[in-house]
Amino acid sequence: MTSTRPAVRTIAALAVALGLALTGCTPANPNDPDLPPEADLQLSPHGDAGAWFDPAYAAGLGDQYATPNEICAVTDDVVVEFQRGPVGTSTVLGRALTGGAVQWQLEDAACTRDAFLPSEAQTNRAAAVLIGTAQGSANPRWSLFDPATGRERQKLGVSPQAAGVTPLTWVDDMLVAELTDSGIVGLRGEDEVWRLPIASGATVTVLADGFLGVTERLGGTISVIDANKGAVTMTRSVADAFDITWASDGYVQNIQETDPEYAYYDLRGNEVDRTKGVSQYPFVPQPYRGVTFPVADHRKAGTVVGVSADGTPALFEAENGRTFTQAGELEDLPGGILGLTGVSTDGSLLLFETSDGLVIRDDEGKTVGQWPLDYSELRIESGRIIVSGALGTAVLLPSAV
C-alpha cells in the first residue's frame, strides 16, 4: 500500500513517481538510505503525554499492583482506588504502587475510572483526581484532590444531583467535565459557566484549542463543541459514525475501504481533501486514549501507525508493504501492524495485543515483556500499563521500578 499524501504534485514529482513505477522501488530516505521516506516525517500529536508508556519497560515486566477495587487514577508512584464497604459506605484510598502502603484515605467518598487529570507543563498545573462524596450522602459535593497527598485542591460547582462526573480537560482556568447522562459542563471553580446536553451513550473526544468532538453512534451524528464558549459549532449526519476518526483540528471520514477512499474535514465540516486508492491506518496512541493528530498528519502519513511523543514515526509501512521502525525493517509482528496498541515515550518500544496476551517488543523486534494471563481491557495512564479482568485490575510495573 502507498501512504496517504496530498493530491497536488509538481511536474518534477510526477516524473519521479513515474520512474518509481517503472523500477518498482521505494524512494530512498535521504537521511538513512535503508529506511523509507515515512521515517523522516514529523508529526504533531496533541493530548495526554501519559498515553505513551515508560521506556523503562525495556527492562521487562516486574512487579504488579493488583486490586479487586476500581482504579480511579494512576500516577508514577501512586494508585487511587475506590473501595466499597458495607451498607452503601465507601472509601477512596491512595496507595503506593510499590508495596501498596496506604498514603491517604477519604471516608464516605467515591471516584470512578477516568477521574484523573494529568499535569500540564505549559501551565504549571499539577495532576489532580476528581473525587465525590459517597452515594446517598446528606451533603453531596465534588472536588479536585492531590493524588499524592489526598488534600482537597478545589471545590467544584457540580450539581449535587449529578450521578457521576468525568473530567475531560482544562480550557485556560475552566475545567470541562462530562456529567453522567446529563451533558457537558464548563466549571470555573464553584461556578458553572455553561452546560450542554449530549445524547446518552455519546462519546466525547478532546481536540486542540479547547474544542471537543462528540460522536453519537446510535443517532448517526457528529458534533463539534467550542468549550471556550460552551457552544455547538457544527453538527453533521454521517452514514456510519464508526467511520469517523477525530483529528486535533478536524476529522477523517472513511468513505469506503473496498477501493480505499478517505475524506478530510476541518472543524466547520468543510472538506479540505480527499484521497482514493490508499488506506489510512490509525495512529497509536489513538483518540480514545486521549491523543489526536492534525488533519495534515493524516493526509501525509497514512501508513504510519506508531508515533513517539515527539511526533517521530515509530512503526510504519513502506509503499512496498514492508514494515519498519527507526531501527530498520521488522519481518514478524505479533498481531500484525494493526495489532499495535501502545508506544513508549521515545518510540523505542512497541506494545501489541494478541490472542495470547500482550507483548512488548523493542524497535529491533526483540521481545522484552509478555503478559500471557487473561484480561478484558488494557489501557495506559501516566506511562503505566494497566490490565483489567474479571478478578480485578493490575498495574504492571517495569522491572527497573
Furnish the topology, listing elements before pairings.
Elements: H1 11-23, E1 46-47, E2 61-67, E3 70-74, E4 78-84, E5 90-96, E6 102-107, E7 109-110, E8 116-117, E9 128-133, E10 142-145, E11 152-156, E12 165-171, E13 174-179, E14 183-188, E15 191-196, E16 203-206, E17 211-216, E18 221-226, E19 231-237, E20 244-247, E21 250-256, E22 261-266, E23 271-276, E24 291-292, H2 295-300, E25 304-307, E26 313-317, E27 323-325, E28 328-330, E29 340-343, E30 349-354, E31 357-362, E32 367-371, E33 377-381, E34 384-389, E35 392-398
Antiparallel strand pairs: 1-24, 2-35, 3-4, 4-5, 5-6, 7-9, 8-9, 9-10, 10-11, 12-13, 13-14, 14-15, 16-17, 17-18, 18-19, 20-21, 21-22, 22-23, 25-26, 26-27, 27-28, 29-30, 30-31, 31-32, 33-34, 34-35
Task: Catalogue the unreliable spans.
Answer: 1-27
What is the CATH architecture term? 7 Propeller
Q: Within the CATH hierarchy, at the fold level, what is the topology?
A: Methylamine Dehydrogenase, Chain H
Please give the share of residues in helix: under 10%
Gyration radius, rounded: 22 Å
Based on helices, strands and strand pairing, what is the structural class? mainly beta
- Number of DSSP strand runs: 35
**What's the structural domain tally?**
1
Strand content: 35-45%
Q: Report the principal-axis shape.
A: globular
Total helices: the number is 2
> What is the C-level CATH assignment?
Mainly Beta
What about the largest sheet?
5 strands, antiparallel
Distance between the amino and carboxyl termini = 41 Å
**Mean residue pLDDT:** 89
Protein name: PQQ-like domain-containing protein
Signal peptide: 1-28
Keywords: Signal
InterPro entries: Quinoprotein_ADH-like_sf
